[in-house]
Specification:
The protein is mainly alpha-helical. It has helices at about 5-15, 20-40, 65-80, 85-110, 125-140, 145-165, 180-190, 210-230, 235-255, 270-290, 300-305, 310-325, 335-345, 355-375, and strands spanning about 325-330, 335. Strand 1 and strand 2 form a beta hairpin. It is globular and about 65 Å long. The two termini are about 40 Å apart. This is Acyltransferase family protein.
Amino acid sequence: MQTASTLTTDRLASVAPNRLLSLDAFRGLTVAAMIMVNNPGDWNHVYPPLEHAAWNGWTPTDLIFPFFLFIVGVSITFALGRGAEVAGHGVVRKIVKRSLTLFLLGLFLNFFPKFDIMTVRIPGVLQRIALVYLACSLIFLQNTPRQQLYILGSILVGYWLLMTLVPVPGVGYANLEPETNLAAWLDRTLLTPAHVYKPARVWDPEGLLSTLPAVGTGILGLLTGAWLRSSRPDTEKVAWLFVAGCFTTLAGLIWDGFFPINKALWTSSFVLLAGGLAMLGLALSYWLIDVKQRRKGVLPFVAFGVNAITVFFLSGLIPRMMSLIHVNQPDGTPVGLKEYLYSTYIAPPFADPTNASLAGALTFVLIWFVILWIMYRKSIIIKV
């Protein structure tokens, strides 16, 4: 007779026999958090830690996207394995194809439902993931970990010098203000205000120049993945990854003194802070899940993690589709289906609208967990 824990272990092994379960769980936790912060019940009532920092500084929400890009880097080392040895066997073509697919999926989300080519936002989250995946994959195939470290250093220092020393055309001096920095100038020059993030108007948080340090976040993942794939003892891997995470986080906090931590600009200090914290999170997950085999409660996160891109894409698409379905409220006012369900069934029991908004976000995540759990039980993994 099998116990519940044995069944859980068997399920984990059957679905992902060659996967690093701690990486799947860490990815799943990250994407679940991403879905939660992107789908509050009411955008006017959100707890401060679940919002992005207004400009300089950071909140827990600001760490979610760089955590995902870090995980992309780690995943590349496990997916491509031998690096340059496999570069000549159609791997580059597959990398380009996957990157293009991710980019087009992100562009589709921006197009839907208006499909207005004149005003569509070109950058986006999936687009940045696509570009970071492409760049980091090619860097991994052609460079050793030592060379990757040099590339990372060059990117972080080079971006810092660009943003703080190069005069901004039309402004006349280098600065880090929201609408007058070099990255904002490049976005509105090459993309034009019609094709950037609408709330920002003249710059984009996933814009062109800031994608360069975002690649640095992915390279930190490459270096971490190479370390985890090494033949060293597990205790040594975890110990040194904790040390590296603490050092990297501290370096980011020190650099913040003269190149502020800023997610919108994806500053070099932000790369180090978020990358260091991601190292610490993955080290803890690896120690508990893969080394100590403590897998109780891991299954929900693994279910999210093995279908991360699928759930992220659909969790962005379905609310847009629901907004096209209008339902009359008791007073006769038509609202979108999602807003109607929230105001009718979720919000009323809560006296505090902020708690109601959080309940709406958690409900959305729970619904997706049920769907992903069924997919996981049936070993359905949709690869993009």
